[in-house]
Amino acid sequence: MAGAGGSVASDYPYCNYGSVPSGTPPAFVDNPTLTPIGTNPYGKPSTTVPGGYILISEGTQGPTQVPLATQMSILTRINNDLKFETSYSYIHMPPFSTGVTGTHYIDYLFVNTGLPNDPNAGGDSSYEGSYPDVETTSVAMTDQSQRYDLTHEFNHVLENAYGTVPGQKVSWIQESYNDYLILLTAENANGATPGQATQYMLPSNVGYLDALVYQQPFVPIESCGVNASDGSTVNGPADYFTDTTGFRYNDLFPLFIAQRVGQHFFAAVWEQAKTTEQILQTMTRLLDKTRVQCLVQEYSARVALGDFKELSTSVQRNGSASMYQATTNSGGSLTPSNALQLPRYTGRNNIPITVSSGATQVSVTFTPAAAGSKGTTPDMRAQIVYRATDGTSVFSPPVASGATTIALTKPPKNNVVVVVITNVTMGGFKTALAYGWDPNETFGYSIQVTGGTAAPTNKTYF
Q1: Pairing state between β 402-407 and 131-136
Q2: For residue 105, what is the DSSP state?
Q3: Chain-centre distance of CA 442, in angstroms?
Q4: Burial class (CB in 10 A: 0-12, 13-18, 19+), 379
Q5: Which of 300, 322, 310, 316 is nearest to 419 (CA)?
Q6: Tens-digit pLDDT profile for residues 45-99
Q7: Residue 219: band (very low, low, confident or very high) from pLDDT cuts 50, 70, 90
Q8: What's CA 331's distance to the chain center, in Å?
Q9: Distance from C-alpha of 91 to C-alpha of 26, rounded to nearest angstrom
Q10: Rg of the Cα trace of the chain?
Q11: In sequence order, what DSSP letters do the residues of 64-104 get, joined into one string?
Q12: d(CA 26, CA 83)
């Protein structure tokens, strides 16, 4: 795993993540001996169906809506999903199911089946007191298009059982990391292996909201996306009620962390997070500020090229020309044309550059603005990246200001390189909200380009 144990990615020598914390290897028993929680929030069920770590509780109509044999096969599938996810990522099964704090099943409440106090609706993960559970109607088991949606709800049980990353404060990662686990599940269920040499195309109903990362590149990583279509207002990490686009369901940041920083690093984050922290704050405590800034920069570069190992083709399928920032040329300096889409905290701009005829290199001189739109002292990076015609990724050294140059030793695909501007300002926000930054402070800049000119922004350049 690149970046773990002091190694450095061969194509990206600019980040050395050193020794990266790992989550504790999880315990998973194929046939655990468990007992019901016994809360029965909707009254005593007429039928219970145990399987592995899960107990289905249902009313009299349940076996008619979904035959018991089908229910058992669904439980087998979900347990297999959880077994793979935990073994690969090191995220844990709930402590109340593994003997740490108890030996209870995860409750799966099969609703709209005639339970005594049946709510007659469901399709989410909820709580019975302190125990997270899953509640769905029959469609979750009978509609094959919801095959991954059902496992998604059980992943929420695993996440919430930690008690370290409260959804009401850090709701973006509850969905983003969950969908990363679903991505792993889809690979495994279809015979692929994470990290394999050949490309794997995800099912169309997995990872499709990664398109929003390309449509909203300027928003924070730790965000619930825009809440105004023009980008004038951006959500914070917990504003899921105004995440009108579903940005928080993208899985690219957890995927990047697993591929480039440490396969089990996010498991360490779940284990060691403090309820007062946001995710990058926890990562900074477990690593340090410099390494976290570097991973934010490398993430921007990988996103710009759709460079996600065996899933690159799948990710590029979700690309959008909206990822590129149009510029205005004034006296040889390029500045972003749309001030509403300047990078926020951990956000980015991507500026495509057509290589001049005969050029053997492209250079960019980067000048960040003296302050953000609300007075914060900026810390930004500029880097030139491109996809070569042989399919490999090429990167220039990132700079905080001044010049960076990329040699065109390999011909760029489409004869285009991309200048990636990343905001790595991690603190000191003048108008910081409770979580440590202001998602609506923008950070300006200008660039001067030698060896190329601004390219059209109406198509992608992967």
Answers
A1: unpaired
A2: P
A3: 22
A4: middle
A5: 300
A6: 999 999 999 999 999 999 999 999 999 999 999 999 999 999 999 999 999 999 9
A7: very high
A8: 39
A9: 7
A10: 24
A11: HHS-HHHHHHHHHHHHHHHHHHHHHH-PPPPTTTTTSS--B
A12: 10
357, two tokens: 């005829």
Beta-carbon neighbour count of residue 370 at 10 Å?
A: 9
First to last CA, the chain: 24
Token pair 């107990």 is at which residue? 55
Using 50, 70 and 90 to split pLDDT, how confident is the model at 7? Answer: low
Helix (H, G, I), strand (E, B) or coil at 293: helix
Contact 58, 45 (CB under 8 A): yes
CA dihedral of 356, 362, 367, 373, whole degrees rounded to 10: 70
CB 443 within 8 A of CB 286: no
Report the distance separating Cα 57 and Cα 48, nearest Å: 5
* Cα separation, 228 vs 252, whole angstroms: 22
Residue 2 has pLDDT above 50, yes or no: no
- Residue whose pair of structure tokens reads 């090429």 in the numeric block: 394
CB atoms near residue 129 (< 10 Å): 9
- Asked whether 396 and 384 are in contact (CB, 8 A), the reply is yes
Residue type, 234: V
Spatial neighbors of 318 by CB under 8 A, at least 6 apart, are 207, 208, 210, 211, 213, 214
pLDDT per position as a tens digit, 11-32: 999 999 999 999 999 989 999 9
CA pair distance 95, 90, nearest whole angstrom? 14
